[in-house]
Amino acid sequence: MFRLRNSALALLLAGYCLAQSSSQYVTPEIRRVGSKLACLCGACKNTVATCQMLECHYSLPARQTIAKLQKEGAADDKIIDGFVQREGKKALAEPPNEGFGIMAIAAPVLAVAAGLGLILWFLRRYRQPGVVPAMTDEEVRQYQDQIDKEFSKLD
Amino acid sequence: MENIGALSILLAFCLTIFAIAASLVGAWKKKPFLIVSAERAVICVWGLVTVASGLLIYALMTGDYRLAYVAAHSNKAMPMIYKFSAWWGGQEGSLLMWNFILATYALVVVLQNRRKHRAIMPYVTTTMMVTQAFFLMLIAFLVPPFQVLSTGGKAIVDVGDGQGLNPLLQYWTMVIHPPTLYLGYVGYIVPFAFALGSLITRQPGDSWIFTTRRWAIVTWLFQSTGILLGAGWAYSVLGWGGYWGWDPVENASFLPWLTSTAFLHSVTMQEKKGMMKVWNLVLVASTFFLCIFGTFLTRSGIVSSVHAFAQSPIGPYFVAFLTVTIAITILLILSRLDYLKSEAPLESVVSRESSFLFNNLILLASCFAILWGTLFPVISEAIAGEKISVDAPWFNRVNVPIGLALLFLTGVGPLLAWRRSTPDNLKRNFLWPTIGMVATIAGLMAFGISHFYALLSLGLCTFVTWTIVSEFWKGTMAIRQKDGLSFVPAVIELTHRNTRRYGGYIVHMGIVMMFIGFSGAAFNQDTTVEVKVGDKFPLGRYEIKVSDIKMGQNENYIWQNAIVEATVDGKPFATLTPERRIYEKSQQPVSMVAIKRQLNEDLYINFAGMGSESQRPTIQAYVFPLVSWIWAGYWVLLFGSLICLVPAKVKMQYARTEVVGVSTKHVPATK
Amino acid sequence: MTIAIAALLVFGVLIYTLIVRPGSLPEPEPVSPFRHVDEAKARIYENLRDLQFELRLGKLSDEDYARTKLDLQKELAKVLADADKLKAELGVQTTSKAAKPKAAPEYVCPHCGKKFKEAMKFCGSCGKPMEAEA
A143 contacts in C (CB within 8 Å)? Predict the structure, then answer.
């Protein structure tokens, strides 16, 4: 066998093992439910389904819970409600469409609407001739010679 | 040594204060020597910050483990390059680097403008030095990089060896990602400073735009590069295969990019027609403030993030700084609205001008949505009393349609003529690209692809590509006709005539390629399995087998890797060796994924670990279609941006009006 | 040692910053009060040049072209009027100085006849001295 200078670390590497079963909780059924739940480990913005740390201290127990409840025949909504009851609304991956959660999607929509309004205002305001003191035809004619001379220089 | 470092920082801080005062008084009392003195102070600040940075780097490289910073972010076993990059590996050092970059920019600006822009330079100096003073204040008093370790009493302790840089950061892109991003973040202060300067002094014309055009493009390029390096790092290091996770800090780096992109577009309106002056000021200011805000978000710990700069006391100071500077900027703009009046009317709704308006709307909508989503957990906690999570699915739901709308405009904008486009024109210009788009979508559907956004995105990619290629084609043909050049010289001639437009098209092409890459994400496949050595498992068109497990060590870490063989249809395809490491100092485990990169799809293998009882390896295998297009798109974007920086061949050459009889120096200046 | 370096640093900085001799004040580049007028003119030419190119590309109908060109003429008239006003205000006369031709001087090798953009001592093509020998 190979020799390791620091056998304590070798032990650590060997010891840094995955719990026997962590990979068996990555099934399509568990993912279906998990994709609606936020991973609350604090280090990622993923869902319980997409958190890729097999041993994540939040997602793994969450997946195990989902699996257990599914075995007992609980419906998806029931399972999710259970999480919300335990963790609060932050257990959901996306803001719920109720209460203040509506603001999450409403604010950007309102912002776009406001932006469109601003553009409309801008178009109205600046399409009116006369915003900039325009030259009268008379005045333009005064400079016509010079303009023609200047323009003719271009190829 | 640490005393000299600390002194340099303190002295630099005092000098920034002096520079601010001298500039303002000099401009007010019209005393040129005060202004020059302030500029010399800027040069000294650069010198002092450089000394401080040099000393810190020296301490890191030589391993002066009496310093808290060195002990926390470096160790003996680290390769030299990471010892150097430990300069920005932690809070204190990265703030020092921020200062160094800002001081360097200020130095360049001062040296470039010794004789130019004399009227606005005092205000440019002031703006840059106010920012510099703030950041120097942070490292002078709040998070000093030259802190020595000491026991309870006064004795200095040498711990002998340090903790080492976070292993996740010991990767080549991480050596250049932070500096690049900082170069982009800090750089926007230059256009901002010039904009403010000409606003304050009411310069006639729009010369600040011409002066800072290159700065804006270069810093934008740095931002893009920094963001993509970060994405590339996340993809190949973090082991979850994503390049973008909507993490608050990622978002923070993306926000100023969005506004600066908007600025680069809408600034053409001001250049060409003297319109949207207020708006451009708002954009350049927002970009600058979002850069500062991003720094704040990264370091204050108000939102949880993987980019864990530990919670630190500097948050409130950022809030104060931002509040004050934003307020001053708004007041300045409001007090000079008359100066910012638009010079030209808008002729038609269907015109290039209005396409820029919509482009800006979409970029800013995305910016706002991302900002809102990032802060929503904090906001909801503050207002509704309950924290609401906003995770990746929400960001995707909101930003995918926005991104596609933007892609659409990328194709439409360049086809609209300035001022007005009649319906006949539209038909002529849009017929073929639209047919191409429909054909692409139909073709992909025939291949059994039904994912709505992916179809739309790839269709739009065809649309935009078509418009860009036809722009080049038509232009080249026109040049050939006129000058009788052969094809390649004609393309070069065309690009050279108007480098910013055609360089811009190439940048658009890079973006299109990235969108092709993003669309691939709709077809990702993955599996996680625990297998016996020698067993096979399928993924997509691959058969994957773990054929061996090996172990070893070097002085920095011990490692264990899996030899993974992939076959396609029974034929050997690739052998990959994903690895796990445990770093000695930090005892932190790190996965080194193995990726077989191809143009159509990447095979991505992560060695997640060994099952504790079974002693079987657990393998996470992924297929990521089209990811390589994102990185390829970056190179195209880089190439296009560089072309934008080349001066156009037919520069604005114009007759200069000169005053007869007197030399221009003595002509009474207009106010 | 540390104290000496510190003192040197402080005094060096103070002396460099505070003592500005009149001779070291920079001579500002002459700025013509008509610069923004010239820039505005240049902008209009640029727009016109673009317009003509787009017409050639077929991105523009003749009618749109004519209308836009007329607009540009009006804008130019406005700029010219502004220039006149400024002239009257300042009470000066002006001349228009044509832009310097950008073409770099060419250096021709007296031996092989190859042209170069920069002045060189020896020809980059045939290697003989560039300056014609007396």
Answer: 76-77, 80-81
What radius of gyration, in Å, describes the C-alpha atoms of chain C?
28
Residue B286, both tokens = 């927002």
Average pLDDT of the residues in B196-217: 85
Contacts of B131 (CB under 8 A, 6+ apart): B102, B189, B292
Range of the domain at A106: 100-152
CA distance B402 to B361: 10
Residue in C57, C67, C96 nearest the CB of B478: C57
Q: Answer with the one of A54, A78, A94 that is the final residue of a domain.
A: A94
| Nearest-10 crossing angle of helices B32-62, B2-29 | 160
List the pLDDT tens digit at each of the 155 positions of chain A.
344 455 555 555 555 555 545 667 777 778 888 888 888 876 677 788 877 777 778 888 888 888 888 888 888 888 888 888 888 888 888 888 777 888 888 888 999 999 999 888 888 877 765 444 456 666 677 777 777 776 666 65
In chain A, the number of structural domains is 2
Question: B384 and B292, same structural domain?
Answer: yes
> Number of folded domains in chain C?
2
From chain A, the residues in CB contact with B303 under 8 A are: none
Same domain, B406 and B550: no
CATH classification at residue A31: 1.10.8
For residue B579, give the H/E element and its range. Answer: strand B579-583
**Shared domain check, A105 and A81:** no
Say whether B465 sits in a helix, a strand or coil: helix
Chain B residue closest to C69 (CA)?
B419
Domain count, chain B: 4
- At B362 the three-state DSSP class reads helix
pLDDT band at C45; cut points 50, 70, 90: confident
Model confidence at B192: pLDDT above 60 = yes
Residue B485 to residue B481: CA distance in whole angstroms: 8
Q: Exposed (0-12), middle (13-18) or buried (19+): which is B434, by Cβ within 10 Å?
A: middle
Provide the residue range defining the domain that includes B238: 179-184+214-418
State which residue of chain A sits closest to B531, comparing Cα positions: A23
In chain A, which residues touch C (CB < 8 A)?
A: 133-135, 139-140, 142-144, 146-147, 150-151, 154
Q: What is the mean pLDDT of chain B?
A: 86
For residues B189 and B423, give the distance between their C-alpha atoms in angstroms, rounded to a whole number.
Answer: 42
CA C2 from centroid of its chain's CA atoms: 49
Q: Are residues B477 and B605 in the same domain?
A: no
Nearby residues of B108 by Cβ (< 8 Å), 6 or more positions away: none
Question: Between the CA of residue B165 and those of B54, B91, B148, B582, what are the distances in Å?
Answer: 19, 12, 18, 13
